[in-house]
């Protein structure tokens, strides 16, 4: 995290901006991988819309319209905060024991922009071996989720934050029981 | 020669006896209020269910609002059979096996869409959305007079709808839908038929759960027993005083079993969440007795299941819910077995067509918060259903049977205490509904006419 950066984003040349954004996304993924959920929530703006729309096979040719206006996840800030509180509970059975999870963020594309907000696309791969699976055979079939994220990042008070996120998954039928940790 | 015949007959007899033995074991245990663990874990039972249970039941496929315009279609499944649920050019609901009559290729490889004709991508046979075979490429050269196209329209199962819910039944034996549902229709009127102007469905979410399909069905019928333990972390995370919001929440619940369904009613004010602009229509749509449950008795439907594999979850939230002010949802969930330990969950939300847009948006958002892949209630239930499926699959583990025998000491309440039909109890916790479902399950496997 470039904590030494001060001033508004328009002071920075475009390539430093892209570097900071990539570092932000890596840092954000690290916090989730390391299960530092409260620190992660500090990166999230209060007007966030964190969405995973439903993908369905439709009789159309272009990718955009494979997504419906319905959601697997459709969270505002208070809902995300509730998820984080649930994750802290010792009675949170779905994550006790914790799932093995790791996020791989790549193919970062930053819109040419020097305002305080910028659109960012990235590819996401998440490995999940659910903690509540006990059967040894299930170790052969961990879950891989793949998708494209479209984010709006906002530079405010000296650091980048997440103001909006939509994750367009590549699966129309989710291969997992529950999104028990924010992906 | 004789030796060969004897061996063949012997192997056939053994197969028949082993099926019979298993079904008998299921029946014997049901009589004691127990479920044989094999019903949740064995491949053989899964095959029996595919052969005998699902074809002899009415299975929910889709909500009529999902196919509101002529040509609209969705593709849904009963076990390994795929169905096109569509509205034809005359606006009539149609259900077809998603198989070309030529060689069985699926006509729809998509999940939803709109089309006037279904064209097979293999040899091009084309059907209209009433199922008539309209086009056969190179018909004269290929078939001459051999093919009468009238004989090769799309096949349909039996299908019908009630309260906007479209069901199909693959076999001829079972009674018509309304007779099959029986007295449960009275409760379905409240849950899904509560507005003459109609309810509309969201698009479903679909996911795979590594657990047996019957665990959520049974849980959704009458397991109020688990909520304070399984869902404790969600209650904590919500950070509001549930007792204060709904001081009656821990009071006794109504457990009902009627016709093909069973479920619970709880002490909560549904009308306080449903916009007032919708109350008049609801009161006019329902009978006086049905309306009384909400208006006078201040109860609302909570959860129920229709035999065999569809559940409803009805929830309202408080004024300061994280999603918004006093949201409410009506979730339909179907559980499609893919194996003894794999199930496809399909879930959608119903909301009144006449509700203001912001109420609809809030309802869908609230539903995703509780149910479905991102659902905070669902997730701890799925943790249970996957683990319990695994743990019952051992050789001897739990061989004495899974207990659904709670509440045998209770007596049903008097008729005048509750305006609805069926066998009704007023208790905190009771597994009578699960026993009702298991009895129905055994009877259907055994070919008993209900």
Shape of chain B: globular
Please give the most extensive interface between any two protein chains, plus how many residues each contributes. A-B, 43 and 49 residues
Distance between the termini of chain B: 45 Å
Radius of gyration of chain B: 24 Å
> Helical stretch count of chain A?
3
Give the oligomeric state.
heterodimer
What class would the helix/strand composition of chain B place it in? alpha+beta
Instruction: Give average pLDDT of chain A, whole number.
Output: 91
- Strand proportion of chain B: 15-25%
Average of pLDDT of chain B: 92
What does this structure look like?
- The complex is a heterodimer of chains A (183) and B (450).
- By secondary structure, chain A is of the alpha+beta class.
- Helix content of chain A is 20%, strand content 35%.
- Chain A contains three helices and six strands, in the order ααββαββββ.
- In chain A, strands 2-1-6-5-4-3 form a six-stranded mixed sheet.
- In chain A, a hairpin with a 6-residue loop joins β3 (100-110) and β4 (117-129).
- The longest helix of chain A has 20 residues, at 14-33.
- The longest helix of chain B is centred in the first third of the chain and has 30 residues, at 2-31.
- Chain B is built from 15 helices and 21 strands.
- Chain B is an alpha+beta fold.
- Chain B has helices at residues 2-31, 38-41, 43-53, 139-143, 177-181, 184-191, 214-222, 227-230, 232-238, 242-245, 279-285, 288-295, 357-370, 376-391, 432-445; strands at 34-35, 59-63, 72-78, 81-87, 93-97, 112-114, 117-119, 126-128, 133-135, 158-162, 165-169, 199-201, 205-209, 253-258, 261-266, 300-306, 310-316, 328-339, 342-352, 402-403, 423-427.
- Chain B starts with a helix and ends in a 5-residue tail after the last helix.
- Chains A and B meet through β2 and α3 of A and β6, β13, α9, α13 and α14 of B.
Tell me the layout of helices and strands:
The complex is a heterodimer of chains A (183) and B (450).
Chain A: H1 14-33, H2 37-41, E1 50-55, E2 67-75, H3 77-88, E3 100-110, E4 117-129, E5 143-156, E6 159-169
Parallel strand pairs in A: 1-6
Antiparallel strand pairs in A: 1-2, 3-4, 4-5, 5-6
Chain B: H1 2-31, E1 34-35, H2 38-41, H3 43-53, E2 59-63, E3 72-78, E4 81-87, E5 93-97, E6 112-114, E7 117-119, E8 126-128, E9 133-135, H4 139-143, E10 158-162, E11 165-169, H5 177-181, H6 184-191, E12 199-201, E13 205-209, H7 214-222, H8 227-230, H9 232-238, H10 242-245, E14 253-258, E15 261-266, H11 279-285, H12 288-295, E16 300-306, E17 310-316, E18 328-339, E19 342-352, H13 357-370, H14 376-391, E20 402-403, E21 423-427, H15 432-445
Antiparallel strand pairs in B: 1-20, 2-11, 3-4, 3-6, 4-5, 7-8, 8-9, 10-11, 12-19, 13-19, 14-15, 14-21, 15-16, 16-17, 17-18, 18-19
Helix pairs in contact in B: 1-15, 7-15
């Amino acid at each position: 995290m470039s904590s030494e950066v001060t001033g508004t984003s328009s002071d920075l040349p475009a390539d430093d901006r892209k570097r900071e954004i990539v570092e932000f996304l890596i840092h954000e993924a690290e916090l989730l991988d390391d299960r530092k959920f409260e620190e992660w929530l500090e990166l999230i703006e209060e007007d966030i819309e964190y969405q995973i729309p439903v993908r369905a096979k439709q009789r159309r040719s272009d990718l955009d319209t494979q997504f419906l206006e319905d959601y697997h996840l459709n969270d505002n800030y208070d809902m995300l905060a509730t998820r984080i509180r649930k994750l802290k509970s010792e009675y949170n059975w779905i994550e006790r024991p914790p799932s093995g999870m790791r996020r791989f963020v790549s193919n970062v594309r930053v819109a040419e922009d020097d305002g305080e907000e910028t659109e960012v696309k990235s590819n996401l791969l998440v490995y999940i071996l659910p903690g509540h699976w006990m059967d040894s055979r299930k170790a052969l079939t961990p879950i891989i989720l793949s998708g494209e994220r479209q984010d709006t990042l906002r530079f405010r008070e000296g650091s980048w934050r997440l103001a909006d996120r939509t994750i367009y998954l590549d699966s129309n039928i989710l291969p997992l029981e529950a999104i028990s940790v924010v992906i | 020669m004789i030796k060969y015949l004897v061996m063949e007959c012997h192997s056939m007899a053994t197969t028949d006896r082993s099926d019979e033995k298993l079904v008998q074991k299921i029946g014997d245990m049901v009589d004691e209020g127990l479920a044989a663990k094999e019903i949740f874990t064995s491949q053989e039972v899964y095959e029996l269910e595919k052969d005998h249970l699902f074809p002899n039941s009415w299975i929910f496929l889709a909500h009529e609002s999902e196919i509101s315009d002529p040509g609209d279609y969705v593709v849904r499944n009963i076990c390994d059979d795929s169905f096109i649920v569509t509205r034809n050019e005359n606006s009539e609901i149609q259900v077809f096996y998603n198989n070309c009559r030529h060689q069985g290729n699926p006509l729809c490889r998509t999940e939803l869409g709109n089309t006037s004709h279904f064209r097979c991508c293999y040899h091009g046979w084309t059907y209209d959305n009433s199922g008539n075979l309209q086009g056969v490429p190179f018909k004269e050269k290929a078939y001459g007079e051999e093919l009468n196209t009238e004989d090769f329209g799309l096949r349909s199962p039996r299908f019908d709808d009630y309260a906007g819910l479209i069901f199909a039944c693959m076999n001829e034996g079972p009674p018509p839908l309304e007779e099959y549902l029986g007295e449960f229709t009275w409760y379905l009127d409240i849950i899904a038929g509560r507005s003459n102007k109609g309810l509309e469905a969201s698009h479903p979410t679909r996911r795979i759960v590594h657990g047996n399909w019957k665990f959520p069905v049974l849980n959704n019928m009458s397991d109020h027993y688990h909520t304070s333990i399984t869902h404790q972390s969600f209650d904590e995370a919500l950070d509001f005083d549930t007792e204060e919001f709904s001081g009656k929440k821990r009071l006794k619940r109504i457990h009902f079993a009627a016709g093909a369904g069973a479920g619970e009613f709880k002490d909560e004010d549904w009308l306080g969440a449903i916009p007032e602009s919708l109350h008049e229509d609801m009161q006019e749509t329902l009978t006086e007795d049905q309306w009384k449950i909400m208006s006078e008795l201040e109860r609302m439907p909570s959860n129920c299941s229709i035999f065999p594999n569809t559940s409803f979850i009805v929830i309202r939230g408080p004024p300061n819910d994280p999603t918004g002010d006093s949201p409410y949802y009506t979730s339909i969930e179907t559980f499609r077995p893919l194996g003894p330990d794999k199930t496809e969950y399909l879930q959608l939300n119903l909301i009144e067509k006449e509700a203001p847009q912001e109420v609809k948006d809030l309802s869908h958002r609230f539903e995703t918060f509780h149910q479905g892949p991102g659902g905070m209630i669902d997730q701890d239930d799925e943790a249970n259903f996957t683990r319990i499926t695994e743990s019952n699959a051992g050789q001897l583990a739990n061989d004495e049977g899974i207990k659904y025998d709670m509440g045998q000491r209770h007596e049903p309440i008097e008729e005048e205490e509750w305006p609805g039909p069926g066998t009704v109890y007023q208790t905190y916790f009771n597994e009578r509904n699960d026993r009702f479902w298991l009895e129905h399950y055994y009877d259907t496997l055994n070919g008993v006419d209900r």
